[in-house]
Amino acid sequence: MSRHAAPWILASLVLMAVLVVLGLRIGSFATDYAFIGRTLLHYNPQEPTQLALVELRLPRIVMALLAGAGLALSGYLMQAMVNNSLADPYLLGTASGASLGAILCFSLLTNLTVAGIYLPPLAALAGALLTTLLVVALGSQRGQLIPGQLLLSGVAISSLTAALGGLLSFLSSSEGQLRTVVFWAMGSFERAGWDVLPYPAGAVAVALVLLVFLQKDLNVLLLGEERAQTLGVHVARTRWILVVMAAALTGCVVALCGPVGFVGLMVPHLTRWLLGVTGRANLLFCALLGADFLLGCDLLARLLYPPAGLPVGLITALFGVPFFVYLLRKKRVAL
Amino acid sequence: MRLYNRRRCYLWSMMRFPFPLSVLLLLTLLLVAGCQSNDKSVVAVTVAPQQVTDDLGHQLTIPARPRRIMSLAASMTEMLYAVADTATIVARTQVCDYPKAVLRKPVISSYPLDLEGLVALHPDVVFTVEGITSLDDIARLEKLGIPVYCQRYSKVTDILRGLTDLGRLLGRAPQAKYLVDSLATELKSLEQSVAPAPVRPRVLAITWQDPIYVYGENTLFTDRIRLAGGQNAVTEHFAQPYPALTREYILKLNPDVLIGGSFGKLDSTFFKSYPELKRIKAYQTRRVYGITGDLMERPSPRVAESVRELQRLLRTP
Predict the structure, then answer these.
(1) Is B1 a member of any domain?
(2) Which domain holds residue B227?
(3) Nearest residue to B230 (alpha-carbon basis) of B312, B122, B135
(4) Tens digit of pLDDT for each residue in B255-299?
(5) Per-residue pLDDT tens digits for A227-239
(6) Cβ–Cβ below 8 Å for B248 and A116
(7) Residues B171 and B235 in one domain
(8) Residues B234 and B104 in one domain
(9) Residues of chain A positioned with their CB less than 8 A from the CB of B213
């Protein structure tokens, strides 16, 4: 089943380059390729168009790439961990926890910037990690993660946090707050800036390096717990590593971009379809494919509804789902 | 026997009051009865209800002289207080806070709409503003037999027309005319007081910081700022009245003036979150101002006051 991965990886890199260049051209200021080249070679921050290119468009592109990579990886890890192809990064309640954190911040604080720090992403991160911790605590027994229990705990806690978030939104006094919450819940890369990019970049880099060593265990784990154990995989320990990695990746992304859906579910499947279940370069390719997919969705969002763009979460679902269903029907590959 | 008893009781009760007081009581009773019959005759003359069409094109039937009215929008409450007999206003919503007298009225929640509470008040007609009350809520109210009159304003003159319409509907045309005439004169003098400038300053007014929502081209702000001597920096037409803008779009707009909070406040919040925007002219020249939210947001009879406030800001060097 395993195929040669190099051409696919190369293709995804080429696609990424094309998307990045296209992404640099989309915006309110008119720019051509020559101008982009000039700007990247001799950047002059005094020129507004160049400033927009380097300080606004580029970080947004990088953010979309990192978010796509992070969510796709996280989805891959979750699917391997619970050995269920329906799993996605938000299984641990990360998205609803982050939403609750952000909504708490939007509705209870009058001043969102304290000591120069914009609080909503921090609150979202705290919400994401606390919820994940709670779900993991409920989904484990005597230090062992029980996949079925973890899944159900995730669903239950997600419902609870979603209800609390709903309550806060309902009681919200201002229309502006409500719009912020709705806007936030659909995901956007508009707030991206160079200052916050190191966090998701660090999480993705650490995950990729760590997972190079775990790739084999991960693939074996996909075959089932019993087989993995007989093949010498330390299942309990591997699961813990996967949960921590997935939570960190998802938490970082959701805190900065909001809960962008569907990437973490679809991209791991595409990866396995293209490279096979046990491909060695699966994780790297999954990250690249996720990055390409989300950047493509963001470009589409910006082109369809300028200038602010549609929420990227809508695009991933509106365009991703039909594509996914088409593949599902056409390939009929066993999940 | 019974008759006698009754009369005796009546006489006895009369005697319990001192004589002058009894006479006074009788006279008052007579007077009230007289007034009531008088009133009835007035109603009998003008009993035919009015068939009217509101700004959204809805046709509705309302009493010739509505006696119990209320509004579902803070701005409309201000309009009613300016034109209607305030005793006929039966309630306010949780957001209505101007004029102060309105705070004494019972509260009906407008969102979510307290349908039962509203019906219990038996209003003759309910007034609202397009976009504030959902079409669904309007339909439900009308199904319950409560006519809903909706107004729409896209220019400052629409507010004046709205006041005139309210005056006509409520049988207070002279009061409305007096108010509208004085407002029109005031607005005209405000408009004329602007020194002719080669280029009007381009003003961007933000309503929310994350995402950045602004007053679009198709809001009343465009006309207000024109009367104040400026122009809305947003000239592109968006489907939403308050569109979300990207930082790049604002950088390109490069507004001369930014409205949404004092310089100090926005410097520590808005410009802290979006340092790239410090390059816009408004920030560079420190022409960043806060404004009274109610005045700016509400299409109300205080429109001249709002234009005057904007004019004062634009004149600040």
Answers:
(1) no
(2) 194-315
(3) B312
(4) 999 999 999 999 988 998 899 999 999 999 999 999 988 899 999
(5) 888 888 888 888 8
(6) no
(7) no
(8) no
(9) 176, 179
